[in-house]
Amino acid sequence: MKKKVLFVASECTPFVKTGGLADVVGSLPQELNRTEQADVRVILPYYGEIPQVWREQMELITSIQVPIGWRNQEATIHKLSHQDVIYYFVGNDYYFSRRGVYGYYDDGERFIFFSRAVIEAISVLDFEPDILHAHDWQAGLAVAFAKIFEPVDNMKTIFTIHNIKYQGIVPIDAYDDLFNMSHEHIGGMEWNGLINCMKSGIFHADKITTVSPTYAEEIKMPYYGEGLHQILVDRQEDLTGVINGIDVQEYNPMRDPHLISNYKYSRVKKKENKAALQEKFGLPVDPEKPMYVLITRLVEQKGLHLLEAIIDEFLLEDVQCLILGTGDQEFEHYFHHAAERNPDKLAFYRGFDEGLARQMYAGADFFIMPSKFEPCGLSQLIALQYKTVPIVRETGGLKDTVTAYNEVSGTGNGFSFSNYNAHDLLAVLRYSLHIYYQPEQWNKLLKNVNKSHFSWKDSALEYADLYESMVESVYKINTSYANREA
Length: 486
What we know:
By secondary structure, the chain is α/β, with parallel strands linked by helices.
């Protein structure tokens, strides 16, 4: 029998996206439903940012009252079916009819409302979930409310940590102002004198997952755990890392409409994409010249201080580099001036353009991703899909998906370094260049890259098995109680 699963999340492609969370929530339910082991539906906020093309397809199914402190707030519930997944949307003009998705002073209150509304809505949906699967801090309180209010008998809960750095911190006064609950429950939500939505999800969930096996180990350490490492150590028997995948049909160089030349494995056509990229950025056109690209948010997490420290030295080599991204002014200014200093070797595009990003994945020989920490990472998976060799730091999902090339054994699908050190990055960049100019070794490496595939299929099967085990455990517990009573 299919397990009924309700995903609770704050964003989801194609409706609204700010980062990788939306890609996961957009792709994983589709793949899970294909397994025939699960019936997965998704519930999201009904943001003003959702394009009209999707709003026009939604059906208003009901409205409910949601208790928030001393008052009730109305929530409208909308429904839409897209690619064999049913989506529900929780609407409230006061909380969600704004420009943008996050970044408001009352984000905590907005997602307290959303989490409570999800629990109140379950009783009026045409769907009674066996499992509530909540994602990141914005849905962490939905897990707590599910345990406290029990909208469905024996409903189990999973909480997935996508990035533990962002925890949803709310002043402790919010408990009395917004929660409508006795103080016996505050211990499962409070952390260091504040309400912590991430901690609440970890504390209350039956199972905890995160987006790669290595990250699941890292977040139990003080350096990566962002203050929550001890509770994860306490719950480590219930913590699992499941590597993310990508939509291999969406990221497919054979059919990508943004590319000059579509290809599967052809290096000739890859070089045609490189030449077009060089021309677009005003760099000397030479398809044989090794090209390194970086496509990222320009923030410290992405290891950009390492790149700052060595990029001029690396550009003394006969290479070209392209950087696309936006973020902290420090990095935007640095890479802008670095490009001015090295006009024939480095180009910087400030901003984000999906089509241009695809062209860069396709035209490059190497993709640089020296992250300080990286729960999973999607960019290295996309690079592999476009037959571009990733260069990564060994952390989180980067360690789980990129194996360092070994000249002796001919194994490995990229290059990596362990220590968060600029000269270690420089050394591995130079080593990648050394391999590039050895045709026999380069060919072996590219064959390994061609075999690297990270679709959602394997991840979905892992989650389907986890759902099965959780629901089976409920049945066994109930049976044992029944036998005991008999």
